[in-house]
């Protein structure tokens, strides 16, 4: 095997990932190079010219998510290629059986060239952290409801954990979910803050307290943002305008018990797995 391969992109030191400089690596193969070229072309053509416009608008055009799926890369931001819901078309003609974590890394590296954390986060972050708990721990019912629509860009999902009084202290969050007397619904009350993509989202993967104090009393629920009592307003965060970062209030929101993700009071484990 040759010691070096062709360089890609800028030759300014550290302007690109180091393997772009032509040094061969056992981790990057021809499928990675094809994906890299496809992503570079897509980002340069479909995102870079519009970054400032989207930042100023404080939003990503809704139809752009579908375009990212059709280009063959959006589903990968969940950390792997979910063929069951996303099909077989991957940018650069990569085969699903070839796809690995280094393909995901290339997609993220190329996307972050847009020069705006808000635009990059607005495109992928909700899907990146909001859907995996359902993929890994959700019931078949929930998976069928949201996985394909979100992975194909038809719907948007986000992860709602942080609160005004509980950010990284997940075990002590206060947003509550209490079952109704007939056991058919949870009634949710509380607040969430700094929720990326929240204002755009159709679904929330919501962390709530269903049990006692500490990490043993937390569960995850899937909440439709159109449910009465859900109020979402955009926060204007410096450098993150297009991210859709939001403040969410939930007042007597009725969520069907079938929307519980995994088991009750085991949500802390799912959150740690997700991060």
Can you walk through the features of this model?
It is a single chain. The protein has 275 residues and is α+β, with helices and mostly antiparallel strands. It is 32% helix and 19% strand. It has nine helices and eight strands. It has helices spanning 30-47, 51-57, 62-70, 83-86, 101-111, 117-130, 132-137, 140-151, 267-274, and strands at residues 157-160, 176-179, 185-195, 203-209, 218-224, 230-234, 246-256, 260-261. The strands form two sheets. The protein has a four-stranded mixed sheet. A hairpin with a 5-residue loop joins strand 2 (176-179) and strand 3. Helix 1 (30-47) runs parallel beside helix 5.
Considering the chains and any ligands shown, give keywords for the structure.
single chain; 275 residues; alpha+beta; 4-stranded mixed sheet; 4-stranded antiparallel sheet; 32% helix; globular
SSE layout:
Blueprint: H1 30-47, H2 51-57, H3 62-70, H4 83-86, H5 101-111, H6 117-130, H7 132-137, H8 140-151, E1 157-160, E2 176-179, E3 185-195, E4 203-209, E5 218-224, E6 230-234, E7 246-256, E8 260-261, H9 267-274
pLDDT < 50 stretches: none
Mean pLDDT score: 94
Order of helices and strands: HHHHHHHHEEEEEEEEH
The largest β sheet comes out as:
4 strands, mixed
Distance, first to last CA: 37 Å
Task: Write a concise synopsis of the structure shown.
This protein is an alpha+beta fold and 275 residues long.
């Amino acid at each position: 095997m040759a010691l070096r391969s062709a360089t890609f992109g800028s030759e300014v030191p550290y302007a690109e990932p180091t393997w772009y400089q032509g040094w061969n690596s056992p981790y990057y193969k021809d499928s990675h190079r094809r994906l890299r070229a496809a992503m570079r072309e897509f980002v340069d053509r479909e995102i870079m010219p519009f970054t400032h416009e989207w930042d100023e608008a404080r939003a990503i055009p809704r139809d752009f998510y579908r375009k990212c799926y059709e280009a063959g890369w959006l589903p990968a931001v969940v950390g792997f290629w979910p063929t069951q819901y996303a099909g077989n078309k991957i940018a650069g003609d990569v085969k699903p059986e070839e796809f690995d974590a280094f393909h995901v890394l290339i997609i993220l590296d190329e996307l972050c060239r847009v020069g705006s954390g808000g635009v990059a986060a607005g495109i992928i972050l909700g899907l990146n952290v909001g859907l995996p708990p359902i993929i890994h721990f959700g019931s078949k019912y929930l998976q069928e409801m949201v996985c394909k629509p979100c992975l194909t860009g038809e719907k948007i999902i986000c992860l709602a954990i942080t609160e005004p009084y509980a950010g990284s202290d997940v075990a002590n969050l206060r947003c509550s979910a209490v079952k109704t007397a007939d056991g058919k619904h949870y009634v949710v009350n509380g607040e969430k803050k700094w929720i990326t993509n929240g204002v755009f989202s159709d679904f929330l993967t919501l962390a709530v307290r269903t049990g006692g104090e500490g990490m043993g009393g937390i569960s995850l629920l899937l909440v439709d943002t159109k449910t009465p009592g859900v109020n979402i307003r955009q926060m204007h965060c410096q450098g993150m305008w297009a991210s859709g970062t939001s403040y969410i209030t939930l007042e007597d929101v009725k969520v069907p018990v079938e929307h519980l993700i995994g088991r009750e009071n085991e949500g802390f484990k799912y959150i740690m797995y997700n991060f």
